[in-house]
Amino acid sequence: MEYKIFGPGEIPPEEFRGQVSDFLKLDDAQRNTIAEAFLQRDFDPFSSTLPPIAVASSLLPEQFGRAVQLIRNLLGSWQDYGLALTDIERDLVLLGYAQPEIETITSFLSRLTHVRGRVRESQNLRMQQLDGLPTIDNMNLICDARAVFGGFPLGSERAPDSYKSLLSLTPIVIMEIISSDNYGQRQRAAFQMTEEEFEGLRRMIARAHEQLAILKERIETTKTPTV
After folding, report:
1. Phi and psi dihedrals of 165, rounded to 5?
2. Pick from 69, 98, 130: which residue ends a domain?
């Protein structure tokens, strides 16, 4: 027996059954919230941040996350394998779901027919981003004041007590970057900058931001419309 929504030769993972079970336990209002989220043009089905429509609903974050994972996978298979809703219905029958349960899922998917291409594009983009260089998980910028003492680190100054003299305080900025790759390996790096170096970094970021805006504008003019 070959299932169509899992790809040639593949079988349904146990996680899929759990996601379907959780989805069927939701009420109509909760499922409608999930559908409305997918219908929003700026919705990222891979983001860990809840959209406002989900925050305002009765859905728990884990409920929303598991439902989104189920629906984006179904939409992706539907798009990739050129399936019809009847193909998805057939697979659900083979998996032993009752007709009312199947109708709940297929009627939900029918609302999202025209966004499945956009969801697949988001998934491909996500995969390509993760396959590249490590991504930044978090970045901290800390302003600090560094004490300037007299003397030398090795204690070779002529005046024995000069190292005890606090001469001044100088401002510095510490930048901490925490990154991870697609294998889950995390790295932490920290750098200190003078005020002048930090200002140079700020100017470079501002320039890069302008260049990014120009690039995005050019991409929009060459982008093939998706439904």
Report:
1. -85, 120
2. 130
pTM: 0.59
Q: Could you identify the residue written with the tokens 């790809």?
A: 7
Joined tokens for residue 58: 């009765």
Residue type, 53: I
> Which residues span the domain enclosing 151?
135-222
Are the CB atoms for 114 and 227 separated by under 8 Å? Answer: yes
User: Do 188 and 113 have their domain in common?
Assistant: no
CA distances from 98 to 94, 141, 183 (A): 10, 55, 39
For 78-130, how does the pLDDT look when each residue is reduced to its tens digit (9 = 90+)? 988 889 999 999 999 999 999 999 999 999 999 999 998 888 877 777 666 66
Q: How far is CA 172 from CA 138, 178, 194, 201, 205, in A?
A: 20, 20, 5, 13, 18
Are 50 and 142 contained in the same domain?
no
Tokens for 77, please give them: 């298979």
